[in-house]
Amino acid sequence: MKELIFTQNYGDTKLSVFSTRLAMGKAAAKDAGEQMIKLLSEKPSISCLFAAAPSQQEFLDALAVYPGIDWQRVIAFQMDDYIGLPSDSEASFAYFLKNAIFDKLPFGAVHLMKDYFNSPDPIAAYTALIKKHPIDIVFMGIGENGHIAFNDPGIADFNDPHDMKIVELDNKSRQQQVNDGCFPDIDSVPKCAYTITIPPMVKAKLRYCIVPHHLKAPAVKAALEGPITEDCPASILQKTPNTYMYIDEEAAKLLESFNANR
After folding, report:
1. What's the CA gap between 4 and 24, in Å, rounded?
2. Residue 196's beta-bridge partner residues?
3. Which helix (H) or strand (E) holds 140?
4. Would you say 137 and 39 are in contact if contact means Cβ atoms under 8 Å apart?
């Protein structure tokens, strides 16, 4: 079976469509790993911003075993996390990332948002770290409602003056957490979260966006073939250079260009 089945540029985003989630994750990890090694040859350390979601699992599994990365010179940040969960909750994004990659490798530093929740000003404390170690690479996904991080439609601001903020999650965003199997029902999903805003993500040197599953197909289409609008926050990627998107065939099924070339 042919693994890479389609590539196309959508503005500044280079899209690659793969036959399976596994092939998608491995290809993204290879490209990201090579760029991490390249950046580490040019500077003492690099900072990476990680999304937490089942959609990232294949990618994170492959990245964790990619050879040649000096993880002791990699500083890790979280993209977002819930407010109101117990600190040891298995539903938290910190828990996901620790199990998926952070506890598997000798990172130079891992900055979990929950470690700053008891600070007098958690946002100021966390954003101070990001200003000290500006993000080089973003590992991200796209939500079913087109969000990036927890910048949902109605909240997203392409020119947000803040690097991090508290947001109230919309119902579609909360339902996605149920669809992903992270919570039993929508009432169990927290209503608020901390999120990194859009400007720090688009200012980073590189973005690797991993988006599998048929439920993401409408968001992928809106992000790549629709107008650039905060109604679909991920559409900003069309005019964000050095952005690489990896999706499976299920997520590509609504793209006009994909179907026209089959």
Report:
1. 8
2. 164
3. strand 137-140
4. yes
Structure-block tokens of residue 198: 């859009």
What is the C-alpha to C-alpha distance for residues 192 and 219, in angstroms, rounded to an integer? 22
- Which parts of the chain have pLDDT scores under 50? none
The H or E element containing residue 75 is strand 74-78
CB 116 within 8 A of CB 80: no
The SS3 call for residue 9 is: strand
Q: What is the CATH number of the domain that holds 20?
A: 3.40.50.1360
Domain total of the chain: 1
- Selection from 98, 101, 113 nearest residue 36 by Cα: 101
Looking at residue 160, its amino acid is D
pLDDT for residue 1: 61
* 53-92 residue pLDDT tens: 999 999 999 999 999 999 999 999 999 999 999 888 999 9
